[in-house]
Each structure stands twice: as C-alpha cells, then as structure tokens.
Sequence to fold (333 residues):
Amino acid sequence: MHNNNLINFIDEITKILSTTSDLNKTLTSVMRKIKTFTGAETWSLLITDDLFFKTIALKKSMNIKNFRYETGTGLTGWVLRKGVPILVRNVSKDKRFNKNADGFHKLKVKSLICAPLKVNDGLVGILRLVNKRQENSFSDTDLKLLVNVSHNINMMFKQAFLYKKIDEIAVTDDLTGLYNVRFLNRSIEIEIERSLRYGSLFSLIFLDIDNLKKVNEKFGHLTGSKVLIETARLLQDNLRKVDVTIRYGGDEFVIVLPQTPQEGGFLVAERLRKIIEKNLFLKKEKNPLKITASFGVASFPDNANNKEALLRLADKAMFRGKFSTKNVVFAAK
Fold:
C-alpha cells in the first residue's frame, strides 16, 4: 500500500464526511470507498441500538440492519460485549465464529474485520468488512483504516444526534420561524468541532436591519414585525440548505455558513445585502417599504479560535457598518 494512495484515500474520506449533509448517502459513500480501497468483498453496519438510529433517521438496507442475536453470540457479539475492534484472518479457525450471527446473506464468510461505533460512551453499532478479494485475509493496516474511519463516523453520528435532540426542544423564534439563540450556540459548537477534526473553515454573518426603529415609530410595531418576517423569508430563500439562519433578537440575524472561508462569507453577505436592498417590502400593504441592512463577517479559525470571540468579531464588524454608511458589509479584522 503506497503512502500516496493512503493519503489520497484519507483526503477523499475527509471530503465526503465534511461536505455531504445526507447521513445515509455519506455513510454509504464512505464505506464503499473503504471497501474498494481494502479490497473487501462487502461491508455492513450492524445496529445494536435501534432507538439511536431511529432518532438520527438512518435508513436500513441490505448493508445496514439490526443485530438480532444475544450479546455474546459470534465474533460480532464478542465485539459488542468487549467494545473493541477485531481482525480474524480465518474464521474457520476461530471458535467464536457463528455462521448465523456473523453471516452476510448467502455469502460464505472467510475473513472479517469488525470495529465498534460508540457515541457518548455507548456502543450503537458495529462496522464490518467481509472477505478480502485478492488475498487470503485482511491485514493489520486494513484494521487500522476501518478503526480510523469508524472514529470519523462516530463523530458524524454524534453531530446528527445532537441536531435531532436540539430539534426536540424550543429552538425556534415564534415570530419568524427561524432558529433562535439557543440553537445558535450549539450550531457553532458543532461547526467548531467539525473544523478541528477535519481542518475545515466556517463563517458567521451578523446582519442588522437599518432604521427598523424608525419604521416602528412611523408605521407601528406590526409593520416592523412584518418586515422581520419578510427578511427571514428572503434569507432562507437565498441560502443553502446546510446554512443555519438564526433570529438573534430585535432586528438582528445571524447566519452560520459551514465549509465557507471569510472571503466566501463576505460574498454571501454582499449578495444578501443587494437582495434586501432591491426588494420592495410589504408590496401588497398600504405602505410598501425599501429596507437596507448592515453586515459583519468573521471566520473560524482565521479570525477567532473560540465561539465567544467569533460572535464578538462578527458583531463588531456589523456595527462598523451600522454606525458609518449603513447598507454595507464589513469583514472582521
């Protein structure tokens, strides 16, 4: 196994894990990659905590199924009981092997690698590679690769679980339907964790609607609320599905942009600024309005290395525009 091939493989896996938002598609893509790279005949995920996988909405398939045997049954059961990976070069010589528990459809199992999947110290599943195609058995390097990939998949499942649990609590703003500050804090923490693990960047946009106080004073708070609702819709309609839009409070919004450096965040903010500037708000109302907004952009880890500093710098950049020309985008210094 050449080092360059290994490096390219790891780069591909990291890219899939850090850029694909569909959990089922990501897992399948990653496991197909490692199956091809190791020369395995097939792969499987045996689910040992069905409730966990129902929570994160992972779909079952030919390769993903429940482990229906007692904890100690077969090599798979041994991994479940011990919580450690295992490499068996010849299952016919291992007394722990159980054809029913360790089998894969009608395939004759000859060699096997198993790696446990753990989330929050609980074992939720077992990843397996079955049979080496061109060689007699798997190698120690193959085992290390599967274990490394299992750690990354653990992280992916943990993040999916956190987002699902967050969805179960009150995390939406009653007026706009956007996420609220409670969700913002967890979103940033998850993106920081992803960044530290995969070396990816993400950006934060603060935006403040210019002169909304004057709108409230002239036309009433109901009109001001309608402006906020329409702004929220504009933001959602012009951002990616993976971007997180939050009503920060009052006339402020925050946007979390995964996989986006500061330069990209600035371009997104400038595009949104122009969309808001060109939009005619409340055009079906008695008093249609033209509104502008001021933006601030900061990036992790280029501008800040923790959540508090990132929020502060993006907010500060936004206020530079707010108290100068308005209707402008500033990047954090």
Q: What stands out?
A: The two ends are 45 Å apart (CA to CA). The first strand starts at residue 40 and ends at 47. Residues 181-331 form a domain with the Alpha-Beta Plaits fold (CATH 3.30.70.270). The chain has two domains: 3-167, 181-331.
